[in-house]
Fold this sequence. Notes:
The chain is α+β, with helices and mostly antiparallel strands. 23% of the residues lie in helices and 26% in strands. The strands form 4 sheets. Strands 1-12-2-8-9 form a 5-stranded mixed beta sheet. Strands 4-5-6 form a 3-stranded antiparallel beta sheet. Strand 8 and strand 9 form a beta hairpin.
Amino acid sequence: MREIRVIAVEGLPEIREGDDLAELIAAKLDLEDGDVVVFAQKAVSKAEGRVVRLEDLEPSERAREIAGDDLDPRRIEAILQEAKRVVRVRKPLVIAETRHGFICASAGVDSSNAPEPGMLVLLPLDPDASARRIAQAAHQRYGCRVAIIITDTFGRPWRQGLVDFALGVAGMPALLDLRGSSDLDGRTLKHTVAAQADALAAAAGLLMRKGDAIPAALVRGYGFARGSGSGTELLREKQFDLFR
Length: 244
């Protein structure tokens, strides 16, 4: 029987700027070749100093208009600064496309689990590069080859509830292309491409809860082909997007 285990990485300290995530994880786990380590985006962003103080932001007129009386306009200003494109506004909610191409609420800007009151946490500048750095550090220091996935929690069109999605990927393809293989009846699959990085992110997200201070999880036993990967693989190209 094939078994896949998802293990919460408990007991990690509060992540601060400059922290070595590979070292922190290895102190809690005996990493093995083929492991997948999943990090919540907040942990990576805080280690990389991707935070901003509200007091350092001067809200624009647009930010004040969107915020109205319901939200701090400085928070809206941070969202607008992080957004490549504003997709939809229902005051004070902003759905935006980030510089990476992700479409999500508030351009990924969040105040939960910020290092200090009055601070906001931003998405990593390059989640794939962040994932590669952690994977390389784990290999250099501990001799194991692991895949790294950096995740964030997004809502989904037409579906209730939040799910963790992969933002950055290293050490494995984000997609599993099953085209050309056969189903149980021997029919050739022509269109099936599985979002394996998103599936692993969602599985790990069941254990990584903001209120439980669990910013990482280990997935062991999932067989994957090693290779370079990218969270941008998971973005649908505009010419194939029927809903834009």
